[in-house]
Amino acid sequence: MAIAPSQEQLAKLRIEVASWAYGNSGTRFRVFGTPGTPRDPFEKIADAAQVHAATGLAPTVAIHIPWDRVDDYDALRRHAEDLGVAVGTVNSNTFQEEDYKFGSLTHPDARVRRKAVDHHLECIDIMRATGVRDLKIWLADGTNYPGQDSIRARQDRLAEGLAAIYAALDADQRLLLEYKFFEPAFYHTDVPDWGTSFAHTVALGEQAKVVLDTGHHAPGTNIEFIVAQLLRLGKLGAFDLNSRFYADDDLIVGLADPFQLFRIMHELVAGGGYGDPDVQLVLDQCHNIEAKIPGQIRSVLNVQEAVAKVLSIDTEALAAAQRDCDVLLANDILMDAYSTDVRPMLAELRAARGLPEDPMRHFLASGYLERIADERVGGAQASWGA
Amino acid sequence: MAIAPSQEQLAKLRIEVASWAYGNSGTRFRVFGTPGTPRDPFEKIADAAQVHAATGLAPTVAIHIPWDRVDDYDALRRHAEDLGVAVGTVNSNTFQEEDYKFGSLTHPDARVRRKAVDHHLECIDIMRATGVRDLKIWLADGTNYPGQDSIRARQDRLAEGLAAIYAALDADQRLLLEYKFFEPAFYHTDVPDWGTSFAHTVALGEQAKVVLDTGHHAPGTNIEFIVAQLLRLGKLGAFDLNSRFYADDDLIVGLADPFQLFRIMHELVAGGGYGDPDVQLVLDQCHNIEAKIPGQIRSVLNVQEAVAKVLSIDTEALAAAQRDCDVLLANDILMDAYSTDVRPMLAELRAARGLPEDPMRHFLASGYLERIADERVGGAQASWGA
Amino acid sequence: MAIAPSQEQLAKLRIEVASWAYGNSGTRFRVFGTPGTPRDPFEKIADAAQVHAATGLAPTVAIHIPWDRVDDYDALRRHAEDLGVAVGTVNSNTFQEEDYKFGSLTHPDARVRRKAVDHHLECIDIMRATGVRDLKIWLADGTNYPGQDSIRARQDRLAEGLAAIYAALDADQRLLLEYKFFEPAFYHTDVPDWGTSFAHTVALGEQAKVVLDTGHHAPGTNIEFIVAQLLRLGKLGAFDLNSRFYADDDLIVGLADPFQLFRIMHELVAGGGYGDPDVQLVLDQCHNIEAKIPGQIRSVLNVQEAVAKVLSIDTEALAAAQRDCDVLLANDILMDAYSTDVRPMLAELRAARGLPEDPMRHFLASGYLERIADERVGGAQASWGA
Amino acid sequence: MAIAPSQEQLAKLRIEVASWAYGNSGTRFRVFGTPGTPRDPFEKIADAAQVHAATGLAPTVAIHIPWDRVDDYDALRRHAEDLGVAVGTVNSNTFQEEDYKFGSLTHPDARVRRKAVDHHLECIDIMRATGVRDLKIWLADGTNYPGQDSIRARQDRLAEGLAAIYAALDADQRLLLEYKFFEPAFYHTDVPDWGTSFAHTVALGEQAKVVLDTGHHAPGTNIEFIVAQLLRLGKLGAFDLNSRFYADDDLIVGLADPFQLFRIMHELVAGGGYGDPDVQLVLDQCHNIEAKIPGQIRSVLNVQEAVAKVLSIDTEALAAAQRDCDVLLANDILMDAYSTDVRPMLAELRAARGLPEDPMRHFLASGYLERIADERVGGAQASWGA
């Protein structure tokens, strides 16, 4: 029953990768290193460019400030362009200084709040320097104990801080507000759910949108519903894609629940978000124990396969079965597309576009991993802490 | 460190009880009956009036249509008044007819949607006949299987249906939209979270508010955050109070996690919702295995104790500790109030207001339970199915 | 990388269906009926036989006592055989009489415990009369409120009751003890987890085994781990298969998380349980809103597809990658099998075995559904309550 | 209805504290430091001794190897004794070396498994040198991706490794095996639940017991049931106490769900584990943002209050109500004890035993915190990484 999607449709897919995925990451128990890990933003972008070269799917690289601070942002921009990619979303970071122990934009102390706002103004400057449109804000703000601070007062401070940042945006820039259920705060977080992101971005204005990270929900949450709802409300700005079995595990997208990824992409397509540059797909993952660049290649291919399956849905037949309340037939039409092996179709698409038919094999055979392991000696490997 | 709240503050508490709590309820596995269970709305209200007589806390009784349909609503209203209570919120029900198998306001078929809207218009008529302000809408609408229906199309139908109902309200009436995580729909529900209720009620207008049922969230959800947020946004219309360990267990409020109830009441008080007639406290429980009227008395007392503890918080000291980021002190101030045994203080309050000091003992000694067991023979006991 | 499994391997699959799946079921909110629903055990078995006729996968039908009580069990047995199937596991039921309101084998009152034991002795008699090996025990026992009863005392009573039942088994019969996280009990259940089932069945002896129902776990539980562990410990007696998004949703197996079903089947195969008659695969589902017989056909096909994918895993390559700690390669080998479209292979298998290549289409075209809708008028449709 | 417990009963409480609680801890996002944080095991024990001095409740201090490795264990032992405490449980650590990236006792490579066993043999030597009875094993072992390694093979390796360690124990030593739902492994952990710990410790023998960490369960798990079950099975060796709202949050015990702590202590007392030296109560917490020594004082007091409430339960009346299936009365008897303010009674107990009536105030007034902040300059503050 599945239909064959057009190459044109398939070719609309763009996935942003994140610079920090190429550095080391881990848990509170241990951060394991790997030979060849980048030591600076330039090397991170070089690695990211490999993913795009192999797959044709990842033309932009998100950066994180201060992790990716450089002296010359124009040089960084040109470096990326020379490698066939571009600098993407600028991510702020207000969780790694002593001042932020009890919050940033929501902190009880006005001095700290001011500092956090200023950090975002710096990010907006960097956006201008790198030609970037989107500022993504994820806050570690929250409390660990009931009573520690006023939940309500913190919301008001948050609104105030966001307004100050929003006011500094250029007309063609956007503020994207991410929500997260928990971690690192363990009693309450100041932006815990899509409703909170939504309410704040509505209050800010048209240039403010919501970021949906697929790992940032309570157990059992129907994420595709939120996708459909935010698209309907015109407020879905970007995805942070990854997989989770338990919490914010930040595993490779599509490897914990590939059917969920398919359903999410189904709502993205159905709601008109697919191929829309205003709805960004971004990988936000941690390759704690697996090879990083191959992990990223696997990730973008997983998203591509999910999208290809979604584009194979016979939407007319589906709509008819839904109209008839034929539960099993409607579900069958969906599952039929999901059960289809789209890999041969995607290999053809790659061949037609001059890309390696098997990107993973191509990359592993390229010798790149061996080369960086040899060359990148000395210096400090990039990680969350630096 | 706890302070003594004034009797005036304590006396502001009003809790609505629900007629269906006095009928039989159960699980899909079994509905157990009890001698003396009411057989009609008049007997339900008689039982509910006992709760108010014993506690002085429960002056209104929510009704459910069609379960509480009567020929003469004015008679029902007078019956309640004669017993010292009043008819409260009118709850609609669009989940017990064959037509609603696949939804009501969200159904693919326009005929069923129209029927569901008409049912709500009938409810509004009953509100007029009984002098009731609030229409509470909880929908069982949703799907069990991915693909069964379009999540997005159902949202649009929902918006349309709600708008039609809202348009029929008198200027002093309100529409309250309840959300629920899951059950009876097992893949998606059409109003799963506060964000969805919020977005719809904002679109409807000032007379539309959100209902927060404490049992309708994903595991681990910080409910008091939602309370604080909805109060801040001016959209919290009512609570459905109950307890849960797992899902929508509908147990007696305060018996699964009394500290959570305290935290919820803390945000209610802190956000100005306590004592505000526009933020209703309602019990929505199922006494599957315990005695019903005593279960209701226990419930309103649990809420009263939680509120009394909250009113014992030294809010000035708390604010100071929060300002100082003194995590342990701030938490200690909260916990100190929580650890206080407020029962003697509440017994005094009752004595001062001419109420029995020990409402449960008083009621059990009254012989009412024995009397209704003797008198209510024959007829069909009220339950969800009738 | 996936390999082609042999038809002999594929043909080992046997799935037991349950008689109650053909009757009506629902939630506490509503049980919807369908034309043609069976009115007695004979009609249920007739429907079940259709599933086997269409798929060749479902040769046995579990029964539930008292729902499937008949005067002449030999007649029931012959009826099944005439239709090409056999009576399967006997399921006891101690949750639908007033006496069981507070428990059955764990009840504080010795009289009720004795009654519950006697019910199981009746089930064992029925096993003898129908030539059935397995007695499956799932208990609704538990409490709704802390303190309601002694958790510890109930365990001791449970052990005593199970021992009495176990003692009555013939040497070739088995007692299968199912566990469940919650529902209908909402504070604690007396057999909440595999550890409890395991401890009791170890205490009972070799003829006692554990039943794993895929919907009976806490959110996030790694079910395939339990499968691997119970097989290792020699204590996995049977599966109750179904799907869930939230709680014990009892949806069609493989439609909520098909990758989880694949992983579960992978551990079944890896642990030697596949094709072993001592590890039964049973469907335990509720077709609340979808057509029942087609729902069952879809279910057994979903299991078959999952098994076929598992049998396509290149286990030698997988073991080598695991030995090398090559995380991505090992995962890729697994995912490659999962991504394979096994439906053509299974159509061939069916053709080779004289079965319809497309069982669903074949059944829907047979006119059976229309026939039973016409013929089965009058009488009471079977459901959980009868 | 609550009864007054005897001082003798109250005085039986012993809580072990953990050395690592006095060092810095945090999340993967950030570890915040505090002035005065210990730099070596001797300073950690000095801090721990303050908790015992203030409360009389914490006579032993668990250590962690290699974090607490010293040249002279006898000196460490005497240092503790001089300060009025003793060295407690020895905790192994096989998660912070590169070798353990893919597991320790379960690693595919026999060399790594041997190394992990050897580490435990070293721990047993340290137990002998410090006069410690208990070896506590928590493994970070697990996998992040399906297929990464064989779940079954890892169980077999685990059994083998544990057997080798167990064989090295002296006759009066114990092996305590802790289980954990997830983290740092995100797909499966090798000891995820009490059933797995139980099965392994049964296979090992009488000197092997289970450790229950209150933060290591799936959402919604009824922990007190597991306490009751393990006590019944004679296999509960120790608790790791802490609080959690979401995952393994490691917050101060009793501050997330004080009623749950009460219920856990209720089963401990009811099952005979209270006051039994074979059932250890240990704090395992992370004071990421709050003061550490005060955080520990608060913790042991919270446990003491919970125990005092439990000892206030009128157990005879409770048993009678349970026998009568009087759900509300039985629950009321429990809740009555829970609602009692036991703090005055505990202040009296302290006075009678020559302890400060208000331990927190006493400690804060002592100047200890200021002194260590002044004195402990230079050196590296202890944390998980060192």
Automatic annotation (TrEMBL), chains A, B, C, D:
GO process annotations (BP): L-lyxose metabolic process; rhamnose catabolic process
Entry-linked InterPro entries: L-rhamnose_isomerase, Rhamnose_iso-rel, Xyl_isomerase-like_sf, Xyl_isomerase-like_TIM-brl
Keywords on record: Carbohydrate metabolism, Isomerase, Manganese, Metal-binding
Keyword Isomerase: yes
A GO term for molecular function: metal ion binding
Keyword Transcription: no
Ranges where the Xylose isomerase-like TIM barrel domain occurs: 71-248
Pfam families named in the record: AP_endonuc_2
Name of the featured protein: L-rhamnose isomerase
